[in-house]
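G., the chain you wanted modeled:
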Amino acid sequence: MTLSRPHPRTARRRAHTAGFSLPELAFSLTIVGILSSIAYPAFSSTLASVRRSDALVALMNLQTQQERYRANHEAYGDLAQLGVASVSPSGHYEITLEAASSTGYSVRATATGAQRNHSACRHLRLTVEGLNLTYASGETDATANAGALNRRCWGQ
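Predicted structure as tokens:
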């Protein structure tokens, strides 16, 4: 009975192709790092925009509730009278009714938690005065963003 041994080239080839070499692994990790550094800012911007829609939904809901309340009363109501929560549905914004009268109201949504890092649209203000509706946004409660940035914050 004769035993056959593998050819020396075949044995070396098997040993060489057993896994990744250190340079290949380093190159792969570098590529992954570069791609993630490019993708993360785009992802976080999209995430902030999605979270901002939470505030827009809350403000539009409050606007609807105010008009229903005003149809049956002489003035617009406060949050308790409207039965509206002081936090947006997903909890990313705090809702504050700043003023309510017989002719209008002003309500502000202020970012909370991680959403505060999105500074340009940290505060959103909806003001109704008579038949005029005003949308404002800003880094502070002054909500003094310029027109284009304001429209972007409100998704327009």
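The CA atoms of residues 73 and 102 lie 9 Å apart.

Shout if anything looks off.
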